[in-house]
Amino acid sequence: MPDHKDVRAILVRAARAEARRDGSRTIEAEHVLLAVAALEDSAAARLLADAGLTEDAIRAALDREWEQSLAVAGIAVRMGLLPEATPDGDRDPQIGESTKLLLRRGMDASPKGARFGSMRILFGLLDSERGRVARALQTAGVDRIALRAKAAEALAAGTR
Fold it and tell me: InterPro entries in the record, alphabetically (predicted)?
């Protein structure tokens, strides 16, 4: 596992890879959630895993959320029946609005000057009751508010 001295850069690289995998032109909150879960030796990844949110579980929840969202629009789709996304190799995905928002929320979660680590990013992810991540967590049966409270406790205790 890479050194966590620059967690934000690690997450941006990992989240960018997730966005590419999705064929997305932007790095959104769901890509960041997957990147946090991939940091297996971080406190944030352990908190997610304790809630049953491994990378595979998150991917499954995101797939179910996508199917449910399309069903609301009257489109019946089952994952695995569609071709894989085709990444755009000519472009790097850019930071999307949901990622900008979660980063702002994460920055607001700790005192100024505190190191920006994966727990602050996780807090920012969990601090929204709307959006794809919140819907996927609900689909997975995860209590987002309780998980957010645990992240806040960890931040208060000095966990990065």
Answer: Clp_N_dom_sf, Clp_R_N
